[in-house]
Each structure stands twice: as C-alpha cells, then as structure tokens.
Specification:
The complex is a heterodimer. By secondary structure, chain A is an alpha/beta fold. In chain A, α2 links the parallel β6 and β7. Helix content of chain A is 29%, strand content 31%. In chain A, α2 packs across α5. Chain B is an alpha/beta fold. The chains are: A alpha/beta, B alpha/beta. β14 of chain A pairs antiparallel with β10 of chain B, so a sheet runs across the interface. Chain B: Its cofactor is FAD. Chain B: InterPro entries: DHS-like_NAD/FAD-binding_dom, ETF_a/b_N, ETF_a/FixB, ETF_alpha_N, ETF_asu_C, ETF_asu_C_CS, Rossmann-like_a/b/a_fold. Chain B: Belongs to the ETF alpha-subunit/FixB family. Chain B: It comes from Exiguobacterium oxidotolerans.
C-alpha cells in the first residue's frame, strides 16, 4: 500500500507570538511537527505495519523543514519528500500549496493520504480537503478511527462531539483528530536509521507546474496581537460572600448571565 | 449588484445561530444574499431564514442529504453556484463548513478565508480578520483574485433580527450522483445539547476536577445557564473527559460571552483557545495560577466548594 502523509512544520505550541515589522518573529523559536500531523504519521506507520507498504512523508517548505521530516522518518516513515516553492511563489496561500501537493501526488500511485485536520499556526484546515478534491478522491476529516479491509475502509469521525461511522473506499484521504492514536517518540535506533532514509528535495521544475498557475488568491495585509487584558478583579472574603459578589458582578456589571 | 450564497445549517432539527451570523456577514460584503438550505425535511426552516436577512432561500431536500457528506453537499452546492452565480460564498466555521468549504474553494480555484471573526470595509474592498496561532495573533486578509469565500466563527458577528428581510422561498431539485462516503451510523454525544463552539457560556474543568465524576458540578452549572462544558488538555489527557471537550491550541478555540475556568492552571496552549472570551472567570486553589492573568474575575478557592455555591446563587437569581 502506498501511504502518503501531508506534514507541516509549525511553531511549538509553547511559543508566545511576537511581531517584527508586521511578520511573525521566528528567530529563536522552537519548531515541531504540527501536533495533528504527528497523529497522521503514527497512523500511517500503523497501517503500513498491518497491511504492508511504504509510508512517504510529504511537505511543502524550505530546507528548515528537513528537521521535522527526519523526525517523522525516525518515528518509522520510510521516505520523505520536500517540495521547495519559496523561490517561485511568494506568500503562497492554501490554494498554492494544495495545487503543488496535488501536482506531485497526481504522478504517484496513491492508496491512502493522511494529514492532520488542522495546523496549529494558520488554523484553516483547508489543504487536505483541497488536495482530495484536486485528486478527485473521497475524504473524511477529523477521524478518530481507521479500519481498512482490502480497498474498503470504515472510518469513525468526530463531528463536534458526535461520532459518525463512515463507509468508503480507497484511494482515500483522511485527516487526523485527537484521540486517533498515541504518537510514538522516535527511538534512538530509529533516529540513527532516519539519517540514511531517502529525503528527496523537489521544486516546481520537477513537477511540471507553472508558477503563474500557483499565484495566491489571498493576501495578508496586516498581522497584529490581541490587546493585553487589564488585570482582573480577584475577590476577597468568605467563599460564600465571594460567590454572591461574583454572581452579582456577572449579572449586573458584565451582564453575561 | 454583487450576490452572496450562504450555506445554512441545522443541528438537532433547529437552525444554528451561526447561520444567521453568516447571513449578516454576507450582507456586509454583498448586496443580495441567497441562502441554501440543504437536507431532509428542512423546508420548515426556510421562512425563518427569509426574515433574517436572506433575499432568497433555496431549499434542496433529498433523503440522501439527511447526513452531511462532502460528495452529497458538494454536488448540491456546485449546482446552486451555477444557478446563482454568486461573487461571495459564506459558510459557518463548523464541522460541516470546515469540511465542505475547502472542497468548493478547490473546485472554484479560489481562495478561502477560514474562521473570520470580523469584517472591515465592504464589497470587493472588504478586509477579513481572523485568528492565527489559535488566537495568539490575528491577521487581516483580502481577496486578490477570484471569488470571495469565507467561513465565520460562531459568536462573533452580530446576526440580523427577525423582520430584517422578506425573502422569497423556492424549492430546487438537483441531481445527485453516487456518493463515495456513506454515513452508516451517528452516535450523538450527550453534552447537554449545547455545542461547545457555539455556546454563549462555557464552564471548563482542568486537572483540578480530579476525576470524570468531578465534572458533575460543572455540568450542573452549565445546564442551569444553558451553556456547555469544556476541558483543558490536562483533564482530557488524564481521561476525566473526552477529547471532544478539549479547548486550546490543540482542541477547540472558543469565544463565548462567559468562560468559567475551574481548576485550570492556564497553560499558554489553553489560553490561546479561550482568552478571547468576552468575560473570563477563574476559580482555582492556587493564587499564582496563570489563569488569573487573563481572568476578569477570580476566586481563589476549591472548585468543589465554589461551583456548587455559584450554581445555588444563580438558581436564586434566575428565579427572581
């Protein structure tokens, strides 16, 4: 089975965000595999171990992302592919990135694509469903369970707390929700092996894609930080009095109850 | 005359508030608003939409549309787009909207602005504001090419009152071909019926609730106020509750009117998911807990003392 994981390198969720000339300050920040993509890597490895096949992790991004690809290889993925577009497409948006990913995947034999359901930086969750549409394959987002039998798949998905069981078939794209699995940590032998696993770097000229067709549809004109909240009121006195005061404040001052 | 097509949504047989908010958002950027109402036995809701800002409501009913599937709704929506020729397409930033809108955007080779919390300006010059890094920062986005597609975050855009429009209602027949994903079973989770992302009031628990049973007093308070229960990652990881309740940078990002954090320390990832709530109350034994730094009101105390007292106090208050 040919399994592809769509992976994004993101800011560590521990990081506070600072702006420098209207851009997110990246100097000194820690980067990680997008947490939802870790579930995707783990699930891909499990499916491969059960069904046989090859897991390829795929990302669009600059050379820095090799670190996160190596981490996925150390977890147990077999191959990595990084498509570098930053020299050709300025300020790529979801449209650009999904066209690039689909452009690559169209040329491969694909049985299963797994991605995170959302990236914790941009927070749009668009790229994976877009890729499925461009490849004209079915997709199921925010999944918590994946069962594959031949080319049939039964997928359990979380829909705002409801659980849906969905029958579908391969080739298929799914996106991982929390609860799908518990991602493993790379083992030391895994890390050693990862250094020798293939990591291919491609650019648009390798993909038969024209930069003019990838021009972003959106432009970010400004980034800003939310206003700092003024320090709140910590109540004092007997607990019962505090509770009375709080209820009255919520009712009369904040007017939210 | 610019036109918008808005996808309305129901949950448990009722129109979702976010649909009215989506209509109001569409009105900000387009002259005329057409609303699509899709499902099985949904026509009863058309009249309400027609008074809340819609100039026209298109109703598509089919037994195969009882459950949302990307193929089913995608086919219907693309046919409605052909019919209406909208310049603007608006969805709720809901499970359904998040799933369907990227498919439509890909088909239209268009951009899509997800999770919009406010709009500046109007028409083709509109700027869309949305959170990034789960609300640690925001960005202002404009459309540079193609149609304008966006999803609106629940609870952020003021909906239009009843009587704002007197729209027409039309039943539309569409063609449905094979659906490649079939929903074979839906298990509803009993979380008091109020969805976390749309709840006006959220009572959330952290490690301090100590057990699954520890959520009971929180649920009682939430039920009384017509709100929903949420949780921090700590509580979910400790198996006190389901991951569906998790609020934070992983998990849901919420903007209720009132957020009551009980026994939550306030890790940066959790704050990202809730610090844009309008009013925040923190209840925590530890006076140094980080959650107090974003709270409007704080009580230093044991949640198991404070929460039941608060419930009793609101009960008294709501009777009068």
């Amino acid at each position: 089975m040919e399994i592809y994981v769509l992976l994004k390198r993101t800011f560590d969720t521990e990081e506070a965000i600072q702006l420098e000339n209207g851009k997110i300050e990246e100097d000194g920040a820690e980067f990680i595999i997008n947490p939802y993509d870790e579930y995707a890597v783990e699930e891909a490895i499990r499916v491969r171990d059960a069904q046989g096949g090859v897991v390829t992790v795929l990302t669009v991004g600059p050379e820095d992302a090799d670190k996160e690809l190596r981490t996925a290889l150390a977890m147990g993925a077999d191959k990595a592919v990084r498509i570098s577009i930053e020299d050709d497409v300025e300020e790529a948006d979801h449209f650009s990135v999904s066209e690039v990913l689909a452009g690559y995947l169209k040329e491969q034999d694909v049985d299963l694509i797994i991605a995170g359901n959302v990236a914790v930086d941009g927070g749009s969750g668009q790229v994976a469903p877009r890729v499925a549409q461009l490849l004209d394959i079915p997709y199921v987002t925010t999944i918590t369970k994946l069962e594959i039998d031949g080319t049939d798949a039964v997928v359990t998905r979380d829909s705002e707390g409801d659980t849906e069981v969905i029958k579908t078939s391969l080739p298929l794209l799914v996106t991982a929700q929390q609860g799908l699995n518990e991602p493993r940590y790379p083992s030391l032998p895994g890390i050693m092996k990862a250094k020798k696993k293939p990591l291919e770097e491609l650019d648009l000229s390798d993909l038969d894609l024209d930069e003019d067709e990838l021009a972003p549809r959106l432009e970010t004109v400004e980034r800003f930080l939310p206003p700092n909240k003024a320090a709140g009121k910590v109540l004092e006195g007997e607990i019962a009095t505090q509770v009375e005061e709080l209820a009255a404040l919520l009712r009369n001052e904040a007017k939210v109850v | 005359m610019s036109k918008a097509l808005v996808l309305a949504e129901s949950r448990d047989g009722n129109l979702r508030n976010v649909s009215f908010e989506a209509i109001a958002a569409a009105k900000l950027v387009a002259d005329e608003v057409v609303v699509a109402l899709i499902g099985e036995n949904v026509a009863k809701d058309a009249a309400q939409l027609a008074t809340r800002g819609a100039n026209q409501v298109l109703v598509v009913e089919d037994a195969r549309l009882l459950h949302y599937t990307p193929d089913g709704y995608g086919q219907v929506f693309m046919q409605l787009i052909d019919r209406v020729s909208p310049d603007v397409l608006v969805f709720g930033h809901t499970s359904l909207g998040k799933d369907l809108s990227p498919k439509i955007a890909a088909k239209l080779e268009a951009g899509l602005i997800s999770d919009v919390t406010s709009i500046e300006g109007s028409g083709a010059d509109a700027l869309f504001i949305r959170p990034i890094y789960s609300g640690k920062a925001f960005e202002k986005v404009k459309v540079t090419e193609g149609k304008t597609l966006f999803t609106v975050r629940p609870n952020n855009i003021e909906p239009l009152a009843e009587g704002s429009s007197d729209g027409s209602i039309e039943a539309v027949t569409v063609e449905l071909k094979d659906l490649r994903t079939i929903v074979s079973e839906v298990v509803r989770k009993a979380t008091g019926g109020v969805d976390l992302s749309e709840a006006k009031i959220i009572v959330a628990g952290g490690r301090g609730v100590k057990s699954a049973d520890g959520f009971a007093p929180l649920q009682e308070l939430a039920d009384l106020l017509g709100g929903a229960v949420g949780a921090s990652r700590g509580a979910c990881d400790a198996d006190y509750c389901d991951y569906a309740l998790q609020i934070g940078q992983t998990g849901k990002v919420v903007t209720p009117d009132l957020y009551i954090a009980c026994g939550i320390s306030g890790a940066i990832q959790h704050l990202a998911g809730m610090s844009n709530a309008k009013v925040i109350v923190a209840i925590n034994k530890d006076p140094e807990a980080n959650i107090f730094s974003v709270a409007d009101y704080g009580i230093v105390g044991d949640l198991f003392d404070v929460v039941p007292l608060l419930t009793a106090e609101f009960k008294k208050m709501l009777v009068h």
